[in-house]
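Much of our argument rests on the idea that a fold can be written as discrete symbols. The record that follows shows the chain in one-letter code together with its fold in token form.
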Amino acid sequence: MSPKSKRTRAALAALVVAAGSLVTAGAARAEQPHHGQRHGGQQAQQAQQAQQGRSSLFERTATYPVFHNRPAGEDAAAGTVAEISSVSEDGRTLVHTDAVARRIGFLDISDPGHPRGLGTLSLARLDDAEDEPTSVTVVGQYVLVVVNTSASHARPSGRLDVVSLRDRKRVASFDLGGQPDSVAVSKDKRYAAVAVENERDEEATPPGRDEGDLPQAPAGFVQIVDLGRGAAPAHWRTRAVPLTRADGRALPVLAEAGIAEPTDPEPEYVSINSRNQLAVTLQENNGVVLIDLPTGRIAKAFGAGTASVRGIDTESDGRIDQRGSIEDLRREPDAVGWIDDRYLATANEGDWRGGTRGWSVFDSRTGKPVWDAGNSFERLAVRHGLHDEGRSGKKGAEPEGIAIAEYDGVPYAFVGSERDNFVAVYDVSRPTRPVFRQLLPATNGPEGLLPIPSRGLLAVSSEEDDAEAGVRASVSLFRMGRGTGQTPSFPGIVSADDDRGAPIGWGALGALSAAPGKPHRLYTVTDAAYSTTRILTVDTARRPAVITRELTVKDADGRPAGYDAEGIHARPQGGFWLAVEGGTGAGNKLVRLDARGVTRQVVPLPADVAAGLGKQGFEGVTATTDRRGHEVVWAALQREAAGDPAGVVRLGRYDVTAGTWSWYGYRLESTGTAGDWMGLSEITVVGDRLAVIERDKLNGPAARVKRIYTVDLPKSAVPSGALRILPKRLAHDVLPDLRATNGWTQEKLEGLTVGGDGRVYAVTDNDALDDATGETVFLDLGTARQVFGRRG
């Protein structure tokens, strides 16, 4: 980010540490997770805050789009993902699976700030072009690649390929006897374990059951690979651990544990502790099995149980309403990780009958949960603007991945949200009392969580790839800092609690306005991503900035309104102007609200201008009021109107007293990129000028134009029909500021204002996670003089 004043620098280090949980007493009560059957109190929260102040944090160093590592000649738009990843023993070569492209990829991460593609290995070179890698791990000089070769669900098969890390040649291969999922290697490198899932067919109907239900033969099991002590792969041996009897009946140990369908266990994920005890999750069956690797004996099985979670958003209705609940729902854990040799943690993603939207810690001795996240995991997403409201009626944040590792003597749990695109970091020094530390943003569908503690790194690999939307799968790298003086770039903005003790829900921040007479207060507004329009108050005196209040916008009859508000201006005389974009040209309008958010005036576009517009219309609004109270509103259209000169977009001047419009032209840049278009995203008055955001529709490494330009503020109206083009000057190129976050460069730079403190603020619209990563970048670009020069 751009340089900040001395005043903000001192506050930054102390306040950013508490960004994730926004340390207010209300936040502590609302997001307090369950401790067994008990709830923690204020003392626990105070202790958490004190520990947060002393902890080291992770900062993102790079985001590498894996399509950059594609084979020569392959179309850049071809699907390619990064799912499960592992790393060489020196921590410098990352290996990841790519099930979409049927290959594994290699990255040089020697410099965490500049990962470098080292090419890929197609499974066609190992056997068949249709083979699919499901997991990968590294042992010494070898890469263990778990491969699904199944012809169908009814005929599952798979193998374990051992590939030389040096020359990428296969040196050994083992038949796994079924369709594999995950693989893990013991700390002493004597054993590898593979979960052979033999997953169910979601379209098959077992006799007397529903479609996609269990049981569906053949049953899954665990395959142990004896690696010996440094033995060559040719001397490795496999041992199967059945999870059913030879005749297909249930094992008593699973049946007695209350496993949902013990004749079809479907093992999902594996993790090994330092005593060579293997934990295996049975996700669809809501259970965990513990296996002693040296003997191959099942030591214990237990059900993951159910949980009731209250205070969450459970309806996909366009509103972030955290008054819903789920009752006695099965946890259905996916990933599992040992915190130590006694306690293990599970990410409770759920399958088709469950999912409790959080994660849990179990005591392996008793099989009982000793801690549960309750609503706190999903509320982290809400607080950080990452809540995917469209998934509320299903499994919410869907915590899928979990990894445990120790950094500088402190054990951490990393929990990934598949749908909300983040990784939550917890201190698990006390396994029964995890302490939230930090939230890390990811690109879409974070699947692989790879701690690299020897180098102080964390790698996050993402499985969602959408070339058409311009959001590509990636590997993100984070590095742990030292001490408390670090200032991670994320989050730039979070929310405080509402009057019910829940974090204020937010997203799709497409506009900004200064608050008259309030030096450290801004306003922003939600757009059509949500069914009800809300004006949000932002406190910029804190770092990160904090959304402190919400005001529901109402129509003229006092009912909640659903405007597609793309611009906001807070009037010195009270109330607001909104620039409302329409689905068609005629739907565009300026809306004046009173201080309570009630609609008091609607100003439509002139019919001739509206007739020339498609679905991109009003995008920003600002206003001036002179000493006599004469108010003039300025609005920006996003794209050209039909009939206007090519590449010229309109800036509108509305005289409130006269009720008349006049128009000026603004000439857009061009990137020359096929399929791209340019447009305006914001307008604001800066002294005797109008400042506008001009941007392309590109994101990630393709992004080219994210700029602030100024034009002189016309001193009078122009005759109707004339369209004088205003000369423009570049004030600030925001692209370097966006790139400096080391994340996925966001497309929609949409909000801009000069606060009462004289600083220039900008924000990106995260589109409520629709075809977007969901990350919101809130920028302090410096003082108005720095950005706009002396005239500002």
Summary: The longest helix spans residues 42-54. Helices lie at 6-16, 25-30, 42-54, 252-256, 376-383, 607-610, 735-739, 784-788. The chain has eight helices and 53 strands.
